[in-house]
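User: Structure please.
Assistant: Input sequence and predicted structure:
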Amino acid sequence: MVAGIVAGMLINLLFPPRCPGCGTWGVRLCGRCLALFGMPKRVPGTGPPVFALAGYGGAARELVLAFKERGRRELAAVFGALVAAAVPRLPGVGPDPWLVPAPSRASAARARGGSHVLRMARASGFSTVPALAFARGVRDSARLDAASRQVNLAGRVRLVPDCLPPPGTPVVLLDDVVTTGSTARACVSVLKAAGIRVPAVLTLTTARRTHPHG
């Protein structure tokens, strides 16, 4: 045990932690970057009601990317706590909702060591089920426009029959970022077709510039 403590101290001395949002040395996450994430605000647009905690830019974007792509898995606890605080404030959700993470492409999830959104959902403390998956043929949407994203997902979001919430349970779809809303619409459509009520979609960030947090 003592050896482990000493090893940890040496690692911190040789490789001091840095905030993944702004790069500040000596802290794993600084208060200024954490404060960029507020309470859920409605994201303008048609389709299911989508709420986000921050704008997808600057340090907030860097935090999401650090968690998603750069191996900072400890941020699951941070984002899970933000989700835990936000879900009860979503309109129409009611008590004891379940979380359904938005799916990731299988190859992307493998590269990340598993679904980062599922990890965040479980860290929130809410009951969580990976009820959705992408079928084969879904491309990386990063460089696709709104119309192409919609075509990319058409008919390729499927239910996972063994991972459904109890009948009648309200569900919040959870994701890390909303851009055009295509993923949210496709996922909610599949859930609703299965008789699952989805009163809200919650994302950490929104790429739409009209978000009140930036």
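The beta strands are 41-42, 50-55, 98-101, 132-134, 157-159, 171-178, 200-206.
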